[in-house]
Amino acid sequence: MPKKLDVKYLSKLKGHHLFNYSKSELRRFKDLALRGQKIEEIDVKLFINLTNLTRLDLSNNMLVRLDASIFDQLTSLEVLNLAKNRIEEIDSKLFQNL
User: Fold this and answer.
1) Averages of pLDDT over each 10 residues, the chain, 98 residues
2) Closest listed residue to residue 58, CA positions, set 85, 82, 87
3) Nearest to 82, CA basis, from 54, 59, 65, 56
């Protein structure tokens, strides 16, 4: 069964419920580490309210592809770690808003 990372799964994964956080609280998140979780796919809605996120670690997962708009809301992102995934190709538009 593939693991699709969406807001619900992230809640279970980290033991927190992101739905319990207000938009203003989510905007305070600066660092999100999801390394080594065997994630194969990420829902594009996951990062909508994480606009102040500066570090995102998705290393050591099983990501094969990333939607071209997946990082569009992460306008403050400075560090992105995608090492040790199974990414086959990268859309040229993937990083245009970073």
Assistant:
1) 47 49 75 84 83 90 89 92 92 79
2) 82
3) 59
Q: Which helix (H) or strand (E) holds 32?
A: strand 31-33
Classify each residue of 61-96 as buried b or exposed e, where b means 16 or more C-beta atoms within 10 Å of its C-beta.
bebebbeeebbbbbeebeebeeeebeeeeeeeebee
| Alpha carbons 79 and 59: distance in angstroms, whole number | 12
pTM above 0.85, yes or no: no
Token representation of residue 51 = 């606009």
Helices of type H across the chain: 7-14, 23-26
Parallel/antiparallel/unpaired status of strands 4-5 and 41-42: parallel
Q: What is the pLDDT of residue 83?
A: 97
